[in-house]
TrEMBL record:
Originating species: Dreissena polymorpha (Zebra mussel)
PROSITE patterns found in the cross-reference section: ALPHA_CA_2 (PS51144)
The Alpha-carbonic anhydrase domain, residue ranges: 21-301
Protein name per its UniProtKB record: carbonic anhydrase
Ranges annotated as biased composition (Basic and acidic residues): 301-337
Secretion signal span: 1-20
Family designation: Belongs to the alpha-carbonic anhydrase family.
Oxidoreductase is among the record's keywords: no
EC number: 4.2.1.1
Region of interest (Disordered), residue spans: 301-358
Keywords for the protein's UniProt record, in alphabetical order: Glycoprotein, Lyase, Metal-binding, Secreted, Signal, Zinc
Keyword Zinc belongs to the record: yes
InterPro entries documented for this protein: CA_dom (IPR001148), CA_dom_sf (IPR036398), Carbonic_anhydrase_a-class (IPR023561)
Length: 439
């Protein structure tokens, strides 16, 4: 299954850890509360994602193009797609590495995954000059030169190097995403633990053409435990995704079924809201999908919030929302619209992943839509961190004294070295010395 047993076990351990830890993108488990749920890490000062204010970034000529290998992948390399309930993740099997790009070590690619949103133009974790993108791809690489496993690397400074790609909507499908998009429906139920295999391709295929134009900063994982072990790269050039492809992503995360509070709405507007949701997620003509979706809502509702279900919740449409109740429930918690206050037990906002959104003036359909598929963490404070830029702005003087030596541009020797041992070969030692000098 995995390149070797220890990596496999550690990757599994990571999954188990993050999946058993109870967190999500909404309500009391949402990003606003991660700092309370995981105070040792998610409350740190170097968290990700961030907004990149391009004017404040600092040009660093030492940040050159990446080396990405193997390209093409070695025979026997595989990609496995699964839905872990928080994201669609593709685990790599085989040897995939990135180096250079201002990284001082060689990093081994473990997996890539996506963050997206439901509302138009929201969904990316990083934002450029305050503007989010509809979806963001993260390629997660671990320092295989200094550490023996991703589990070890994930908690160490410089242990991970994550490459972040933002997307913009295009008319045409992005052919690179097609094999993945084509299997998404097969993995839509995270509980079934389905792994779909797709052909392995070079990671270069997921980088923008101008892979030498990027932003660089020190940050964290964007999901709990939020370890501050990540050297971040966010590329300047965006990749493309068609509306149709984005649509498929938006359908694969389970609705949470958490409270949706809304001042009592008349029946017909509820059905209209439901219809709008079906249209939005592209199942308006598919009765089977609608039934499945409704069952899912009911199931989640029963699981999570049965105590606050209204009496007439047997109607499927009714379960799309809960009447706002101003009673104090049998569990002793008051249920009322989100007030924006933290630190007490009353926080039934379905939209905590979405800064600036207020339940009070959102339409019901908007609330349900947002509840469906957001899986991005809002931007975190920079706290004085510097964001570097690999390319000069127009008219920015370039210091010609800065000579950058590549560690290696090709696939072969270095990758073998990285794969087989830590610093065994003289080649690697030279690479480290060169890297050290560059710092
Ligand atoms: C990241 O942190 C390390 C260690 O503190 C520092 O040497 C490096 O310059 C930082 N990189 C960036 C991009 O800020
Ligand atoms: C609950 O609120 C409704 C209006 O929102 C009001 O008519 C009703 O009296 C309230 N019930 C209680 C118990 O406060
Ligand atoms: C919703 O309310 C917030 C403040 O409560 C306000 O900033 C925002 O503009 C409102 N949005 C709409 C669409 O009315």
């Amino acid at each position: 299954m995995f390149p070797n047993a220890s990596i496999g076990i550690l990757i599994l351990a990571l999954f188990v850890t993050t999946e058993s830890a109870d967190w999500g993108y909404e309500n009391e488990k949402g990003p606003d509360h991660w700092a309370d749920l995981f105070p040792e890490a998610c409350a740190g000062a170097k968290q990700s994602p961030i907004n990149i204010n391009t004017e404040d970034t600092v040009y660093n000529p030492a940040l050159k193009d990446f080396s990405v290998f193997f390209d093409p992948p070695l025979p026997g390399s595989k990609f496995y797609v699964h839905n872990n309930g928080h994201t669609i993740q593709v685990n790599t099997e085989g040897k995939f590495f990135v180096s250079n790009g201002g990284l001082t070590d060689i990093y081994s690619t473990a997996q890539f995954h996506f963050h997206w949103g439901h509302k138009a133009h929201h969904g990316s974790e990083h934002t450029l000059d305050g503007a989010p993108s509809p979806i963001e791809l993260h390629i997660v690489n671990w320092n295989s030169q200094l550490y023996n496993s991703i589990g070890e690397a994930a908690v160490e400074p410089n242990g991970l190097a994550v490459l972040g790609m933002l997307f913009e909507i295009s008319e045409e499908d992005n052919p690179v995403l097609e094999p993945l998009v084509n299997v998404l429906m097969h993995v839509r139920d995270p509980d079934m633990k389905i792994k779909a295999e797709i052909p392995a391709v070079s990671m270069r295929a997921f980088l923008p053409r101008a892979a030498d134009r990027y932003y660089r900063y020190n940050g964290s994982l964007t999901t709990p435990g939020c370890f501050e072990s990540v050297v971040w790269t966010v590329f300047h050039e965006k990749l493309t995704i068609s509306r149709r492809q984005l649509h498929v992503f938006r359908q694969v995360l389970k609705p949470s079924g958490h409270h949706v509070h809304k001042r009592s709405t008349r029946k017909h507007s509820r059905s209209r809201a439901v219809r709008e949701v079906f249209e939005e997620i592209g199942i308006e003509d598919d009765k089977r999908e609608q039934a499945r979706f409704r069952r899912q809502i009911v199931k989640n509702t029963e699981t999570h919030v049965h105590e606050s279900l209204p009496e007439d919740a047997t109607s499927h449409e009714e379960t799309m929302e809960h009447h706002e109740s101003n009673h104090t429930g049998s569990h002793g918690h008051e249920v009322k619209p989100h007030t924006g206050h933290h630190g007490h037990n009353v926080k039934p906002s379905p939209i905590s992943a979405h800064p600036g959104a207020h339940e009070s003036n959102m339409t019901h359909a908007e609330q349900v839509r947002m509840m469906l598929v957001n899986n991005y963490r809002p931007v975190q404070p920079l706290n004085g961190r510097v964001v570097y830029r690999s390319f000069p702005f127009f008219n920015e003087p370039i210091n010609i004294d800065t000579e950058v030596v590549y560690i290696d541009k090709d696939n072969s020797e270095l990758a073998r070295g990285a794969a087989t041992s830590l610093v065994s070969s003289a080649y690697m030692c030279i690479a480290i010395i060169v890297a050290a000098v560059l710092c």
